[in-house]
Write a structure and sequence with these properties.
This protein has an eight-stranded mixed sheet, sandwiched between helices. The chain has a six-stranded parallel sheet with strand order 13-18-17-14-16-15, with helices on both faces. The longest helix has 16 residues. The protein is α/β, with parallel strands linked by helices. Helix 7 packs across helix 8 and helix 10 packs across helix 12. About 30% of the residues lie in helices and about 10% in strands.
C-alpha cells in the first residue's frame, strides 16, 4: 500500500506511457474515430495520414513533457505545421476550443471494421435453435462462449482479447485498489429491510460464479468496495435493492457482478415461440430479448457501463450490447442482431427501438436504474415509466430491480416505492456527502480574476502531482471560450458540452483519458457517472447553484479510495449555497476559510440553495430508509409529500 505522494509521483511516468498508440494493440494508430464501445478492437482499415494525430517518432511521440510545458505544445498558430515529434491537423474551430480532438474523422469507416471483427454467430440466442452451440473458436474467436444443454460452455482464452479488455498485467492504469482503499472499512454502512443477507468480505464462490471470479482477477480487482460487499449477497439472494453511495464507490461493479454471476449460473431463457423471424437467415429483423436491462442517463455513462460489462462477460454466453441517442442507429441495430443478452441503454433510444419492434423486454429478469436521480433531473421519468410500466416488461414480482443513486430526494423515494418490492435499502457513507479522500479548497475569486487565478493554479501544481485536470463551468459558451484561452496559453485542453456532436464528445473524452489533452473543460454533461482514471484535480471555475451538483462534480476525483484535490472559485454570486457548502466541508473534515463563514453570516436568512431535497442540513434524512419513519410502502405521504 503506497502513500499519496508516491501515487502522485507515478503520474508523470504514467503520462510518458500514455498515447494514442497505447490502446492495447501495441501499434500506433491515427485519429480515426472509433466509438467508445468499439475501442480496443483491431481494425483492418488503414487510416489516412493527415487526419488527427500521427506519430513521427513512436518512442517519444506520446510523451507529455510537463517540465518544459511552454515549449512542449504548439501554439495555436502552429497547429497545422509539422514538428519533429508529432504533426497536428488543423482543428475545426466552429465548435469551440479543443486540442486537436475536433480534427475531421473518417466517416463511419468503423462500421466496416466492426462488421468484420464481430461477424458470425454467438452464444445464447445467437442463431438458430435455442440449444445450438455457437462457440466455434476455430472459425471465429470473439471471446464469447455459449449455453448448451443446460451447461455453460466457456470459450477458449485469447491473449489478444484479454490485452484489449484488461490491459497488461503490470499496467498501473489497470489497478483497482486505491491508496486509501483500506479506509473504506471505516465508512458507515446502513442496510435495512426484511432479512438482509450477510455482507461478504472478499470476492468468493459462493455467492459469485467461479468464471466471474476469473474475470474479476483479470481486471485486477482484489477487494470489494463497501457497496459491493453488501450488494453482491443481496442481489444473489434475489432481493430488490435501493443503493445510495458516494460517487466513485464501485456502484457499477455492485450491480454487474451479481447479475452476471446469476446469468452465468442460470443461462438464458428460451425465446417466445411466437417471435417471427427468429429462425436462421432472418437476422436482419430479429428482435432482441435481453435478460438484463441497465438504464443510464447519458451516452458516456452507458458506454462506460458497457465496457465494464464486456470485461466481466468475457468468454461467457452473455453478450453485452449498448444503445444510446446521438449516434447512428443502424450500427446499433447491427450490434443487436449479433446478440443482446445484457442491454445498456439511455431511455430515449430504448423507447425508439421498442417502437421499431427490435427490442422486447418480456424476458428481462434484471432491471437496473443507474444514476436514477440524474435521469429524473434530465426529465426521463416519463420514458422510464413507459419502459417499466407500459411495455412488456415483467411486473415487479417477476423481475429483480436495482436502483443506484448518489442522492435520495423525494422523487427517487417515490420511484423506489413504485418499481421495487420488499427491497433492501443500502446507504454507504453519508448520502450526498463527499469523500475525505478529496482535499477541498475554496478560494475567493471575483469573476474578472478567474482566468489569471486558474493559470496560477495550473502553473503551481507540483511536478509529482500532475495528473488529469477537470474544470467545470456553467455554460457551453464558457466551456469553449475557456478551452481556447488555455490552448492559447500553451496548456493542452479540450472541452465537452451538450452542443458538441457525439463524435466530438467521444473524441474529447478519449483524448482526455489517454492524457493527450490532460485538461478538460466541461459543463454538467460530464459531471455525473464518468469514471476516468487519474483525475487528480477538479476545479469548479463556476460553482453550480445546487450543492448536489457540486458533490457530483468533485466526485470525479478521489475515486475508489484514491486521493484527489478539488478547488472551487467562490464569490458573493454563489452565496445561495454557502451554508450547505460549509456543512459539506464539515462532514468531510475539511478546512473552512474564515471569510466563508463571514459570508454565511451575512447571508443568514437568505433563501434557496437547498438542492432537490428541500430544507434542512445535509446528511440528515437523505441517507435514511424512509420506510422506517411511519406508514408502509404504499403510502405516498411517507415519502416526503402528499399527492401530486
Amino acid at each position: 500500500m503506497s502513500n499519496g505522494n508516491s501515487n502522485g509521483g507515478r503520474l508523470e511516468q504514467q503520462f510518458a506511457n500514455l498515447g494514442i498508440s497505447n490502446q492495447g494493440s501495441g501499434r500506433p494508430t491515427a485519429g480515426r474515430y472509433v466509438p467508445p464501445h468499439l475501442r480496443g478492437h483491431p481494425s483492418p482499415l488503414q487510416p489516412r495520414r493527415g487526419n488527427g494525430w500521427h506519430q513521427r517518432n513512436e518512442s517519444a511521440a506520446a510523451a507529455v513533457d510537463w517540465n518544459n510545458r511552454r515549449t512542449s505544445f504548439p501554439r495555436a498558430d502552429t497547429w497545422g505545421g509539422s514538428r519533429s515529434e508529432m504533426s497536428y491537423s488543423s482543428p475545426q474551430r466552429s465548435g469551440g476550443g479543443g486540442w486537436n480532438d475536433r480534427a475531421s474523422s473518417q466517416s463511419d469507416r468503423w462500421n466496416a471494421g466492426y462488421r468484420q471483427n464481430f461477424s458470425g454467430g454467438r452464444g445464447g440466442y445467437g442463431r438458430g435453435s435455442f440449444q445450438e452451440d455457437f462457440s466455434n473458436n476455430s472459425r471465429r474467436d470473439d471471446g464469447y462462449g455459449s449455453w448448451r444443454d443446460g451447461t455453460h460452455i466457456i470459450a477458449q482464452r485469447n491473449q489478444r482479447i484479454e490485452r484489449d479488455l484488461f490491459g497488461a498485467p503490470d499496467d498501473p492504469e489497470r489497478q483497482h485498489t486505491g491508496i486509501n482503499f483500506e479506509k473504506y472499512d471505516d465508512i458507515p454502512v446502513e442496510a435495512s429491510g426484511n432479512n438482509v443477507p450477510q455482507c461478504v468480505s472478499q470476492f468468493s464462490s459462493p455467492p459469485l460464479d467461479t468464471h466471474l471470479l476469473i474475470n474479476i482477477e483479470l481486471a485486477h480487482y482484489t477487494t470489494p468496495t463497501p457497496v459491493q460487499k453488501y450488494s453482491i449477497p443481496i442481489v444473489s439472494a434475489g432481493r430488490d435493492l435501493m443503493a445510495c453511495a458516494q460517487t466513485g464507490s464501485g456502484k457499477t461493479g455492485g450491480f454487474l457482478f451479481p447479475i452476471l454471476s446469476e446469468l452465468f449460473k442460470k443461462g438464458p431463457s428460451p425465446p417466445p415461440q411466437e417471435q417471427p423471424g427468429y429462425s436462421r437467415g432472418m437476422s436482419r429483423s430479429r428482435k432482441a430479448y435481453p435478460a438484463g436491462l441497465i438504464l443510464a442517463p447519458t451516452r458516456e455513462l452507458a458506454s462506460q457501463i458497457y465496457e465494464e460489462a464486456r470485461k466481466f462477460a468475457y468468454r461467457s454466453w452473455v453478450r453485452p450490447c449498448v444503445v444510446y441517442g446521438g449516434a447512428d442507429i443502424s450500427g446499433q441495430l447491427r450490434q443487436i442482431d449479433r446478440g443482446c443478452d445484457l442491454l445498456t441503454a439511455t431511455p430515449g433510444r430504448l423507447v425508439d427501438l421498442i417502437e421499431r419492434g427490435r427490442v422486447s423486454l418480456s424476458q428481462t429478469r434484471y432491471l437496473v436504474l443507474d444514476e436514477a436521480d440524474r435521469m429524473l433531473d434530465m426529465g426521463f421519468e416519463p420514458q422510464i415509466r413507459r419502459i417499466v410500466e407500459q411495455e412488456d416488461m415483467p411486473d415487479v414480482k417477476s423481475r429483480q430491480t436495482l436502483m443506484f443513486s448518489a442522492t435520495f430526494p423525494r422523487d427517487i423515494q417515490i420511484l423506489a416505492r413504485d418499481f421495487l418490492e420488499d427491497y433492501v435499502f443500502l446507504s454507504v457513507g453519508r448520502v450526498g456527502s463527499t469523500s475525505e479522500n478529496i482535499t477541498q479548497k475554496i478560494e475567493y475569486v471575483e469573476d474578472e480574476d478567474k482566468r489569471s487565478v486558474l493559470l496560477d493554479i495550473l502553473h503551481s501544481q507540483p511536478e509529482t502531482e500532475r495528473g488529469l485536470t477537470l474544470i467545470f463551468v456553467e455554460t457551453k459558451r464558457m466551456a469553449d471560450m475557456l478551452s481556447d484561452f488555455l490552448i492559447n496559453s500553451n496548456f493542452p485542453a479540450t472541452s465537452i458540452h451538450g452542443d458538441r456532436s457525439q463524435r466530438e464528445r467521444e473524441r474529447a473524452l478519449e483524448s482526455f483519458r489517454t492524457g493527450r489533452t490532460p485538461i478538460m473543460v466541461a459543463t454538467a454533461v460530464a459531471a455525473r457517472g464518468l469514471d476516468i482514471p487519474n483525475v487528480t484535480h477538479v476545479i469548479n471555475y463556476d460553482l453550480p447553484t445546487d450543492i448536489d451538483d457540486y458533490v457530483h462534480r468533485i466526485g470525479r476525483t478521489g475515486r475508489a479510495g484514491n486521493v484527489g484535490i478539488s478547488t472551487a472559485f467562490f464569490n458573493r454570486g454563489n452565496k445561495g449555497i454557502v451554508r450547505e457548502l460549509i456543512d459539506l466541508l464539515k462532514e468531510a473534515n475539511q478546512e473552512i476559510p474564515q471569510w466563508l463563514e463571514t459570508v454565511a453570516r451575512e447571508t443568514s436568512g437568505f433563501g434557496g440553495g437547498r438542492g432537490r431535497g428541500g430544507g434542512g442540513s445535509r446528511g440528515r434524512g437523505q441517507n435514511r430508509d424512509y420506510r422506517k419513519f411511519g406508514g408502509n410502502n404504499n403510502d405516498r405521504g411517507n415519502y416526503g409529500g402528499g399527492n401530486e
